[in-house]
């Protein structure tokens, strides 16, 4: 019987985000200690040999789930890429994040001006870029900050 439905079935939202890593322990430490995600150890993914190849973390305030999966080749391919941009309320929140990251020895950009708001960028243990963008906006401006490492054009 042919499907005559004209609209796709309903999607509830995002179940989880999967992020590749060359080192599950290093990336887990970054997400837990720097981004304050909680490791849900009962969901650890292990091979029959017992080798850990993925972990699930949760961001408690939003309920967002993130899977960190061992895949060295994909992690290397995404070096310098920002797969996820986290949202914060204000420019001041970006400055607070910048200070927080500095206290933990995480190298990051200065707060940079984007087209409609501001952004902060840091590098995770695999060299992937982690961005925070604020909801506070300014007038649309094509004269944005460009930074060779943090916000290339």
Automatic annotation (TrEMBL):
Pfam families: Glyoxalase. It comes from the Eukaryota. This is VOC domain-containing protein. PROSITE patterns: VOC. It comes from Mycena albidolilacea. InterPro entries: Glyas_Bleomycin-R_OHBP_Dase, Glyas_Fos-R_dOase_dom, VOC_core. Residues 13-135 form the VOC domain.
